[in-house]
Amino acid sequence: MDSTCMISFNIQTPSCLQSGACSQVNIVRGNGNMDALGVNPDLILSGTTNSLVLLNSDTVCWHGIKIENQSNTQPALTQADNVFLALIDSSPNYLYDWHFVKSGQVIYPDGNIFGLTSALATGTSITGDLCARVQACPADTLPYEVRLHYGWNCGGYPTSPYDSTKICEFSTMQLTYKKAMTGFNTPGKTYETPYTLCDTVTVSAQFSSTELGYVYPDSVMLQNTDPALQIVSVNLVTDSATAQLAPATQPMVWLIGSAVMSAAGFPQGGIYNGQTVTVQVTFVPTCTFAGDTTLPDIVIFAHDFCNELVSANANKTMMSNTFRMSSVQSACADCWQITKTADRDTAAAVTDLVTYTITVCNNSANTQTGCWPMRCQAVLLLQVQHCRAV
């Protein structure tokens, strides 16, 4: 006796496929055997060049994030629609202004969801950098985690607030970051010596960032500056460029900033990891500076990538030769100096004689340049009696 057995299937379409048209298909072989119900795309994270990044600049990036739609599974997989990244957890909130950069295009999130591409064909991939700006820094250097979902969805990109239970397919991506250290210092200043009165002279100081954290110079201040020094210019000098600084409204302060740093060869606006800049001050010692040896101290005020203020003061002398005036030449048109010294500080009576040495120096640019001392005798507190050249 023949008997017939009938088997029926009640196949439900997954809820994520009910809301919109997708490229996914049900594949049934000609012999009636079912290979798959909805052969879905198979997205994999095939690489990122730095899953751990250092917070060391005002913007940090995880480079080379690559999401690939595999094609090596049988039967051939299908196109992935509405490929996305979703920022699940980035607390504590040290980072902000998240964005994804691919081929020069900057993609900003809708809420916490990045729509990367509306269609990713089989065997192709999308690669880019996930970046954020630093708004605060942790007090420690421990690693912190950032968790994301990546996947595809039918009927459009996921909407904010993100709900993973309504997504067709996703996987988890985990990235980490930690704070870098900063260091900013200077060994001191160097100068030209001997200097020539009424001619230009330079004093310089080199400043270094000694750690992996970026330092961004903001301004230069000259401290302990003799009024007899006329400041001509303040420049930022590197091996390849020179950028002149603009004076601030505050006396003896000159501005640096990102534009000057870029002109000096630092497009990031700062220095790090052993990079250096040199501040060169050009000034003219005027006539009244004659014989003086006082140089200004050069101070750079800056901020690091955590927006904390840092500074370095070039108040030390790095040369064995003393900063002194030339005794054989001058560029001053008319420059005289008169000094007076007494042979003693006290006298027994008002009638005692005190000998003064009065030195007259011609610091002008002519053949008579030189100094001539004269001795004068005086009755203390009364009058000069006579002088004689010595």
List the helices and strands and how they pair.
Layout: H1 15-18, E1 27-28, E2 34-36, E3 43-47, E4 52-55, E5 59-69, E6 80-89, E7 95-102, E8 105-107, E9 113-120, E10 125-134, E11 144-152, E12 169-179, E13 184-185, E14 189-191, E15 201-209, E16 215-223, E17 229-237, E18 242-244, E19 246-247, E20 253-255, H2 257-263, E21 276-285, E22 297-304, E23 309-314, E24 336-342, E25 353-362, E26 370-379, E27 383-389
Parallel strand pairs: 4-12
Antiparallel strand pairs: 1-2, 3-5, 5-10, 6-9, 6-11, 7-8, 7-10, 11-12, 13-15, 14-15, 15-21, 16-20, 16-22, 17-18, 17-21, 19-20, 22-23, 24-25, 25-26, 26-27
Name the average pLDDT: 81
- What characterizes the major β-sheet? 6 strands, antiparallel
Give the topology string: H per helix, E per strand: HEEEEEEEEEEEEEEEEEEEEHEEEEEEE
Taking all Cα atoms into account, the compactness measure Rg is 38 Å
Low-confidence stretches: 4-21, 23-38
